[in-house]
Design goal:
The protein has 13 helices and 23 strands. It is α/β, with parallel strands linked by helices and 475 residues long. The protein has three domains: 38 residues; 208 residues, Rossmann fold, CATH 3.40.50; 188 residues, Ribosomal Protein S5, domain 2 (2-Layer Sandwich). A nine-stranded mixed β-sheet has the order 8-7-9-10-6-11-12-13-14. Helix 10 runs parallel beside helix 13 and helix 11 packs parallel to helix 12. The longest helix is centred in the last third of the chain and has 24 residues.
C-alpha cells in the first residue's frame, strides 16, 4: 500500500499546501500551518467498495421537473419558542446544526434545556459531552431543575464509539455533540481539534444524520474574532449555523441564525440568563428600553426590525471636542464604516462640522444592529449630542440615509410603528412614504425627506429650548 503523503494545513482557515511556510497565503495568519498526514479513506467514503464501484460506472438518477407537490420538511418542535423561531419552526429531521458562541455564554445550558424539553415530550435525546464528565453535566441539570428529564447522557470523544452507541437501541430523534472540536476518529492521523479531525468528525456526524433522520446539533468554539473555530468548510457542510451572542456584563443572550437552509437567516431569539437557567424574553423592546433616561441628550429610539420581529432599541451618541490630532471614532453595536458615512453626509450636505470632535456611538443593551434603517436614528442622536438638546421623549426614528442626503424608505414600516404605538410612543420621524403606515398605527408621522430638514428641525428645537431656559433663569 502506498504511503500517504503528508500535507500542510492552516489551522486558522483550513487551506492545504504541499510545503510548510511561516505565513498562510490564504488568510495571512502566521505560524498556523501544521503538518498532517493525508486523511485515510473513511467508511463509506471514496475508498469504500460502493464509491470504488461508482468510479467505474454510476447509476442513472431520476430527473424531476420544477412543478409538482412540495411537502414541507417535518419539524421537531423543541418547546422553546425563541429557539424554534430562529430555526424556522423547529428542528428538521435529518438536519445538522452548528451552534457557536464564546465560552461561558450559555450554549450548553440552552441545549440542555432544549434536550430536556424534548425528552419530556417523549422523544429520545442523546447528549454527548466531550468537554465535561457525565457527573458535571448532571450537576448542571440539577441546578436547572432538569435532573428528572429522561435524557441519555454520555461522555465520549471517539467518533466510532459514538456512532456505534447511536445505532444501538432505539434511534434518537436529537443528538447533541458538545463540542465538535473535541471529537477524533481513528481514520485520521492527527490530533483532536485540528482542521483534519474536525472536518472528518463533522462529515461522519452529518452522514449519520442524513442516513438515520436524526437531528444533530454540533457545538463549536469561536476564535477571538468571533468566528467559529475550525475549517470554514464545516459551515458549508451543515444545514444551519447559529451564533449565541451576549455581553458578559449583562444577563440577556441573543441567538442569531447566520445560515439556515430550512428557514430565515435574519431571525433572532432573546433569552435572559438567570439562576434557574435561560428564560425566554417575549418582549425584548421593553428589556432594551428598561433603563432609558428620556431627558438625556444624544439618545434616539430606533424602531428596528430583526427578521419578522420589531425591536425598539436606544441609540446613544456622545460628541465632545477633541484634544487629539485625529479625532476618535468609537462604535459599539453598529458598523464603523456606516458611522463614517453618516458623519460625512452630515458635514457635506447639512453643514454639521464634526471633524474636530470625538464621536462615541453605542447601541444600548449590547444589541448589534445591522440594518441600514438605523441611519436616521444615529444622525438624530449625533446632532442631539452636539447641540446638547434632548430629543422628544415620545418619538421613534427609522430611515436609510443616502450619500445625497435623502432619507430613503425601509422595509416593513407597519410592524415597526405598531410596536412603537404599543409601547407608548406617539410620534415617528420617518421617510415620507411611511407616513400612511404611521397613521394606520395611530402614530403621528413627522416626515423627513432629507437629512438637512431633520437637522434644521432639531436646531430649531434646541434654540427654542435654550430661549425657554434663559427666560426661566432671568426670572
Amino acid at each position: 500500500m502506498a504511503r500517504l503523503k503528508p500535507t500542510f494545513i492552516c489551522q486558522a482557515c483550513g487551506a492545504a499546501s504541499s510545503r510548510w511556510s511561516g505565513k498562510c497565503e490564504a488568510c495571512g495568519a502566521w505560524n498556523s500551518i501544521v503538518e498532517e498526514a493525508a486523511a485515510a479513506p473513511l467508511p463509506g467514503g471514496a475508498g469504500s467498495g460502493v464509491a470504488a464501484r461508482a468510479l467505474g460506472r454510476g447509476r442513472v438518477v431520476a430527473l424531476e421537473g420544477l412543478s409538482g407537490a412540495s411537502d414541507e420538511a417535518p419539524r421537531l418542535v423543541s418547546g422553546l419558542a425563541e429557539l424554534d423561531r430562529v430555526t424556522g419552526g423547529g428542528f428538521v429531521h435529518g438536519s445538522v446544526l452548528l451552534l457557536g458562541g464564546e465560552p461561558g455564554i450559555g450554549k450548553s445550558t440552552l441545549l440542555l434545556q432544549a434536550s430536556a424539553a424534548l425528552a419530556r415530550a417523549g422523544h429520545r435525546v442523546v447528549y454527548v459531552s466531550g468537554e465535561e464528565a457525565a457527573a458535571q453535566v448532571r450537576l448542571r441539570a440539577q441546578r436547572l431543575g432538569l435532573s428528572e428529564a429522561p435524557v441519555a447522557l454520555a461522555a465520549e470523544t471517539n467518533v466510532e464509539d459514538i456512532l456505534s452507541t447511536l445505532k444501538a437501541g432505539e434511534p434518537p430523534r436529537l443528538v447533541i455533540i458538545d463540542s465538535i472540536q473535541t471529537l477524533w476518529t481513528g481514520q485520521v492521523e492527527s490530533a483532536p481539534g485540528t482542521v483534519t479531525q474536525v472536518r472528518a468528525a463533522a462529515q461522519a456526524m452529518i452522514r449519520h444524520a442524513k442516513t438515520t433522520g436524526a437531528c444533530v446539533i454540533l457545538v463549536g468554539h469561536v476564535t477571538k474574532d468571533g468566528q467559529i473555530a475550525g475549517p470554514r468548510v464545516v459551515e458549508h457542510m451543515v444545514d444551519a449555523v447559529l451564533s449565541f451572542e451576549g455581553d458578559s456584563g449583562r444577563d440577556f443572550r441573543i441567538l442569531r441564525a447566520q445560515k439556515n437552509r430550512f428557514g430565515p437567516t435574519d431571525e433572532i431569539g432573546v433569552f435572559a440568563m438567570t439562576g434557574d437557567g435561560l428564560e425566554q424574553v417575549t418582549n425584548p423592546s421593553a428589556l432594551f428600553l428598561g433603563d432609558r433616561d428620556p431627558d438625556a441628550p444624544g439618545a434616539a429610539v430606533l424602531a428596528g426590525l430583526e427578521g419578522s420581529r420589531p425591536i425598539l432599541v436606544e441609540i446613544q451618541a456622545l460628541v465632545v471636542p477633541s484634544t487629539l490630532g485625529t479625532p476618535r471614532r468609537a462604535v459599539v453595536g453598529w458598523d464603523g464604516a456606516r458611522l463614517a458615512m453618516v458623519l460625512a453626509v452630515l458635514e457635506a450636505r447639512c453643514g454639521v462640522r464634526l471633524g474636530g470632535h470625538d464621536v462615541h456611538l453605542a447601541v444600548a443593551g449590547g444589541l448589534r444592529i445591522q440594518e441600514p434603517a438605523a441611519d436616521l436614528a444615529v444622525a438624530a442622536a449625533l446632532v442631539s449630542s452636539l447641540l446638547n438638546a434632548p430629543l422628544p421623549v415620545d418619538a421613534v426614528f427609522f430611515g436609510e440615509i443616502s450619500l445625497t442626503g435623502a432619507v430613503r424608505p425601509v422595509s416593513h414600516p407597519g410592524p415597526r410603528l405598531r410596536e412603537a404605538a404599543r409601547l407608548g410612543f406617539r410620534r415617528a420621524v420617518l421617510p415620507p412614504p411611511a407616513a400612511e403606515a404611521a397613521q394606520e398605527a395611530g402614530v403621528r408621522p413627522v416626515a423627513a425627506p432629507t437629512l438637512d430638514a431633520l437637522v434644521a428641525r432639531l436646531a430649531a428645537r434646541a434654540e427654542s429650548a435654550g430661549a425657554a431656559t434663559s427666560r426661566v433663569t432671568d426670572e
